[in-house]
Structure formats: C-alpha cells, structure tokens
Amino acid sequence: MWYVYVLLCADNSLYCGITTNLEKRLKQHNGDVKGGAKYTRGRRPCRFAYIKKAMNRSIASKLEYQFKQLSRKNKIDLINQAHPHLQASLDLQAQELLPHHSLLQELPQ
Length: 109
What we know:
This protein is of the alpha+beta class. It has one domain: GIY-YIG endonuclease. Helices cover 39% and strands 19% of the residues. It has 5 helices and 3 strands. It has helices spanning 22-29, 38-41, 57-69, 72-82, 100-106; strands at 2-8, 14-19, 47-54. The chain has a 3-stranded antiparallel sheet, sandwiched between helices. Strand 1 (2-8) and strand 2 form a beta hairpin. The longest helix has 13 residues, at 57-69. It is globular.
C-alpha cells in the first residue's frame, strides 16, 4: 500500500511526498533515521497534516503531483476538509499541529 502524505514543518511550510512506510518516512524527515528530504532538514520538526492511501505507486505519484499544483490556500482547504477536527490548528497562520500519531490512528485499515 502506498500513501501520499503532507507534512507541516516547523516554519509553517507544507511538504508533500509518497511512501509505503509512514512512520519510517517521518523519522527520516525529522533526522532520526538517515534519508529525509533536503527540504525538511532545515525545517524540523515536521508532523503529518494529511495522509491518503493509494493503490499503487503510479496513483500515489499522480495524487502527489495534483496536490503540488494547488495553491497554499487550496492545499490547506483540502487538509481541513479531510480532517475537520484539525481546522482550528491548520489555517494560514498555523503554528502547531496535533502529533502525527493521532492521524495515523484514525486511518481506516
């Protein structure tokens, strides 16, 4: 199973990527495990803001591309629609987001 994920970085920027292992990828982005994106190295800590399942890598890559084409406002609107309980903490001035474990527990299995 592939996932498209969006991280909220410490500087309030968003980073989108794909993976098959969410926990490991977050650890990589936060420097706990070797291999995170160069973009997130100077923007730690990062937390999940959005996670979506995809059937295969091709679909995940297409979803990632579509997300990256959105404006910041539309990206945030999409995240808020997917996780309405986070809406108060994820707006254009967002400074903090719930720990990523909350979102992972809510993913349908």
